[in-house]
From TrEMBL:
Transmembrane segments: 33-52, 58-75, 96-116, 122-142
Keywords assigned by UniProt, alphabetized: Membrane, Transmembrane, Transmembrane helix
Top-level lineage group: Bacteria
UniProt xrefs under Pfam families: Halogen_Hydrol
Native organism: Thiothrix eikelboomii
Name used for this protein in its record: 5-bromo-4-chloroindolyl phosphate hydrolysis protein
Length: 294
């Protein structure tokens, strides 16, 4: 009988990956929040000008506040795309330079505010706008402009890798959405482990793109099957009759198979053991078909 400690260590890599992913999401969600708070004195000034009957000042201050808030929203979109770009080893550069657009918006707004709101001269206002753009660029950086090709070799292209990774990420996010809707804490934790393990496989593909051909079918069966059973189970909770004992048993059995197959074959995938991997995939696929997933 295996020692309890070995069982506890079984999911250590997945747990670490989950914690890292959570930390990454927290950092991304917090970045740039200050940009929303800095313009609030302008809103107060606009309200005061409105009370005083100064229409021109109200429009300048209120318009500047709105422009700064829009720039902050654009910047946050850029931060999110950049974080995803940095997280991946192979990625396309963002098509739209949101951070650069936000920097320009902020700079122009500052220049106009200095000119119309604080009565600075045109040259001084332009210098303030330029200083604002430079300050934004130094604080937050500008958008990445080059694709990350990683260790691409002959026989596989950047587009193939990115297409496979993007498709896998869509399925993972769908599984995570279903996981949040599932009220059973044990099932929720197991699905969290599964998505974490899936991201580990994606990382190994990015580290060595030649693994894509071996991992493609594995990811398809693994993620498609998990997505369908997770979404189906989550929807069954909203039915009037709810889940049944048979449904819980079937769902539990499918999760067992998915976890076990993935854990056993992850090492074989890295070791180029194609035969054992294909056998295990075929076994899992047959079970998913019996459960009505495919």
């Amino acid at each position: 009988m295996p020692h309890p400690v070995s069982k506890a260590q079984r999911y250590a890599p997945a747990a670490a990956a989950t914690a890292s992913e959570a930390a990454h999401q927290v950092r991304t969600s917090l970045r740039g929040l200050l940009l929303y708070f800095l313009p609030f004195p302008l809103l107060i000034g606009a309200i005061a000008a409105l009370v005083a009957g100064n229409v021109a000042s109200t429009l300048v201050l209120g318009g500047s506040f709105a422009a700064y808030m829009l720039a902050a929203t654009i910047a946050r979109r850029g931060f999110k795309l950049e974080a995803e770009y940095q997280r991946r080893k192979i990625a396309r550069a963002p098509k739209t330079p949101f951070k650069t657009v936000a920097a320009l918006f902020t700079a122009v707004t500052t220049g106009v505010l200095a000119w119309l709101g604080a009565d600075y001269g045109v040259l001084a206002s332009i210098m303030m706008a330029a200083a604002t753009f430079l300050g934004f660029a130094l604080s937050y950086g500008l958008d990445p402009r080059r694709d990350k090709a990683g260790g691409i070799s002959l026989g596989v292209t950047v587009d193939e890798i990115i297409e496979a990774v993007d498709a896998a990420e869509i399925r993972i996010k769908s599984i995570e959405q279903a996981r949040r809707a599932i009220r059973n804490p044990d099932y929720s934790q197991r699905l969290e482990r599964i998505t974490s393990q899936a991201r580990q496989i994606i990382t190994t593909i990015e580290e060595d793109p030649t693994r894509l051909s071996r991992a493609r079918k594995f990811l398809k069966v693994y993620l498609d099957g998990t997505e369908k059973v997770a979404q189906g189970y989550a929807k069954s909770q909203n039915n009037q009759q709810g889940t049944t004992t048979n449904l819980d048993t079937d769902f539990n059995r499918v999760l067992d198979s998915i976890e076990q197959t993935f854990q056993e074959q992850q090492t074989k995938l890295l070791e180029n053991n194609n035969f054992d991997l294909d056998v295990q995939i075929a076994v899992l696929e047959q079970q998913l078909k019996r459960e009505g997933v495919f």
